[in-house]
Amino acid sequence: MLIFRMARNETRSSSCDPGLLKNIRWLLLSVFIAAPAFAAGADEVKPLRLCADPTNMPFSSDSPANQGLYLEIGQAVARELGRPVTYNWYKSYFGKRTVRETLLSNRCDAMVGLPLVDDFMGPAVIFSKPIATEGYGLVSLPGRKIASIDDLRGLRVAVQYESSPQNLLALHDDIEKMTVLSPDEGMKALDQGKVDVAFIWAPVAGWLNKTAYGDKYQIVPTEGDHLLWRTAIGFAKNSGELRDAVNAALPGLKSEIDGLFAKYGVPNVAPIKFGALDKPKMTLAAASDQSATASRPSTSDNRSERKASAGDAKEGREVFNGTCAHCHGPDAIQAERHIDLRLLKKRYGDNMQATFWKTVHEGRPSKGMPSWKGIFSDEDLKNVYAYLLTVQQDPNSTN
Ligand code: HEC
To answer: Which of 378, 136, 123 is nearest to 236 (CA)?
Structure first.
């Protein structure tokens, strides 16, 4: 699903911008969409336009060889509705921004796999019945019994950095934790015998298990605070009719959809209850949602004023955590110094602002820093800068 995805080191795709006609995909797509209208003008052949991430396996990809679970569910639904499918590709690591700029900008009719939670962009987005769950799972060699957290005592467990499992296990000293940055790294640690169990993002673990590890491992999905989410097909709020038609089609597709889970190795069995967090810590998404909501009533009066001058740090934090955090760390907490943005002041002093603007506008493509010009407005980036000012380390400190 969108907001919980780990990013990869990809530079941005020009598919974000339909104006970039040099992107062949867009040319093909517009021809495809236009053709039926010219040919027949008939409503019933109007394609179902799906928004999808071109590089988000096991859920979606633009490679015909590996289309992905959500893409194939979308295709099955369209077939059931008697409509052809077209795609609008957009990287999902932009989170809510992706939804805003695709689904809510009428670039597509449906988006498969949005998190079914009350505060996810409702009421702008409406949902189908649930189609899947996504969450963290326990990966281990088959036969290991893990029915509760007690079964992890004395074991070595890989957890993803800043994830709910990391928060959960942090409270248990008798479980030896190893922090990994991605599900891939967790699977590797498991395979190299460095850990007994990997407590990682289950859909990706399942896909890797299937494609890279010959289905060698069992994956037990877990349920508990911030461990599991239901996902559904999202529509813009004025698409109630389409949503109802999709809901009517879903029950007839159940066995086909179950088959697709198996095809992509995505766990589809009942999760084990893994307990609530003793001290619930907010997830990244929940935290930024909360701060955004909380800021609304209190700051709306002076917001425009502050925006015009120095930028709005709260809005900047939302952008930062939605996008920049994938590489620079949630709330800019980052152990690798060369991408630790809390050191900007210390590093550049009076040139901090100039360096910021040059870097975010032009990027450093050869080093893996994308250019954000055209993706974020200068207003957004000004807000991000305002946010970064609030997290700078004391330039005189010695570490
Ligand atoms: C895909 C990973 C990635 C994303 C996403 C990303 N960055 Fe970066 N960024 C990098 C890397 C890698 C560097 C270090 C480049 C180098 O070594 O010079 C960098 C460097 C920077 C620097 C300069 C740091 C310095 O000390 O010179 C700034 C400022 C920056 N990024 C801001 C942002 C902002 C703002 C966003 C979100 C809009 C963002 N980045 C998103 C990868 C990323």
So the answer is: 123
Task: Report pLDDT digits (tens) over 14-59.
Answer: 333 222 222 222 222 222 333 333 344 445 578 999 988 888 889 9
Pocket test for ligand 1, best of 343, 355, 359, 376 (most atoms within 8 A of CB): 359
Residue 282 parent element (H or E): none
Phi-psi category of residue 299: left, alpha or beta, with phi > 0 → left and psi -120 to 50 → alpha: alpha
Domain boundaries, the chain: 14-134+229-264, 135-227, 284-389
Which of 339, 340, 353, 390 is the best mutation target for the ligand 1 pocket, counting ligand atoms within 8 Å of the beta carbon and taking the most?
Answer: 339
**Run of H or E including 221:** strand 218-223
Residue 372 CA: nearest ligand 1 atom is 38
CATH 1.10.510.10 correct for 14-134+229-264: no
pLDDT at 387 over 90: yes
As given in the structure block, the two tokens for residue 161 are: 């950095």
Question: Which CATH code for domain 284-389?
Answer: 1.10.760.10
Distance CA 37, CA 47 (A): 10
Look up residue 62 and give its DSSP letter: S
- Structural contact between residues 231 and 133, judged by C-beta atoms closer than 8 angstroms: yes
What are the tens digits of pLDDT across the range 268-303? 888 888 865 443 333 333 333 333 322 222 333 333
Instruction: Output the pLDDT for position 248.
Output: 95
- Give the per-residue pLDDT at 53: 86
Which of 91-95, 124-128, 246-250, 304-308 is the most confident on average? 246-250
Tell me if 135-227 shares its fold with 284-389: no
pLDDT (average), residues 171-176: 88
140: which residues sit within 8 A by CB, 6+ positions away? 146, 190, 196, 197, 198, 217, 218, 220
Predicted TM-score of the model (pTM): 0.56
Nearest CA, atom 17, ligand 1: 367
- Identify the CATH assignment for 135-227 out of 3.40.50.300, 2.40.50.140, 3.30.70.100, 3.40.190.10: 3.40.190.10
